[in-house]
Design a protein that fits this description.
By secondary structure, the protein is an all-alpha fold. The protein has 12 helices and no strands. The protein is globular and about 55 Å long.
């Protein structure tokens, strides 16, 4: 088992994967609580436009996609809060618009682009030192923002009216949650891909919700399960010689199904 740590690419993959797992596991609890599970798909797929623009212009794909995802998150929030459009409709509009822009931009790219495939389906084993440090530094900023605003994020999630009456502006923390979720999703695209990333945001929280009664325990279990899914998925992909991103997601799905069956049998 320890032989995998002899390879630098596996060490980078486990470090980057674990760090992103903490982010998505924690943010997933807010996404589930707010019934915004479509958010992950919307941000991930719309970020294709940012990645396509970066590839077309020779820019760094992940930083460009992060900036584009932030713009998308703000647009989703404005559509949701300033119009009569519901959250899922706003996400759907940006989802399809981002994908369409990405396809148009890629039309102007000449030749085969193998790097694009890694962003669509993920290839955590190709993460280099630049990718690793980008994930750690950007992720650390996101974690600090969550920690500093955690109580207010929880307050506005479960009692918007009470938060407003307490002097808190809920829109500030709604927008903050949208932005940091968008950034975290883009950071994980290189790991599991645009197509699969929302599963890593949702599955750990779905499992944790089966066994917890408080939001605190829900959050802790979701984060632990998220890290477990990534690490076990990576190990399985290494020994079974399977695509890492898909194996990580299927590991999460398998764990959820086992958890659901066990919960059902206990009734």
């Amino acid at each position: 088992m320890l032989e995998i740590f002899q390879y630098q690419f596996m060490v980078r993959a486990i470090l980057a994967g674990s760090f992103v797992a903490v982010l998505l596991g924690w943010l997933g609890t807010f996404i589930i609580a707010r019934k915004m599970s479509f958010m992950g798909d919307g941000i991930a797929h719309s970020s294709l436009a940012g990645i396509a623009l970066a590839l077309l212009l020779g820019w760094a794909p992940i930083p460009t996609a992060v900036m584009f995802a932030i713009v998308v998150a703000i647009c989703i929030y404005l559509l949701e809060s300033k119009t009569k459009i519901s959250t899922d409709v706003a996400i759907g509009i940006m989802f399809t618009t981002g994908m369409a822009i990405g396809v148009i931009l890629l039309h102007f790219y000449q030749g085969y682009q193998p790097e694009l495939i890694s962003y669509l389906f993920g290839n955590i084993l190709t993460i280099n030192n630049f990718d690793l440090w980008s994930i750690i530094i950007t992720g650390a900023i996101v974690l600090i923002l969550i920690i500093l605003n955690y109580n207010k994020l929880v307050f506005t999630t479960f009692d918007r009216e009470g938060a407003y009456l307490s002097g808190i502006n809920p829109w500030i923390y709604d927008l903050l949650l949208y932005i940091i979720t968008a950034v975290s999703i883009v950071l994980s695209i290189k790991l599991v891909g645009i197509v699969l990333v929302s599963a890593l945001l949702i599955t750990p929280s779905a499992f944790a919700r089966l066994y917890t009664n408080s939001f605190k325990s829900f959050t802790i279990l979701a984060v632990l399960v998220s890290v477990l899914i990534v690490v076990v998925g990576l190990i399985l992909s290494y020994y079974l010689d399977l695509p890492s991103g898909a194996t990580i997601i299927l590991t999460g799905t398998g764990l959820f199904l086992l958890g659901y069956i066990f919960k059902f049998l206990k009734k």
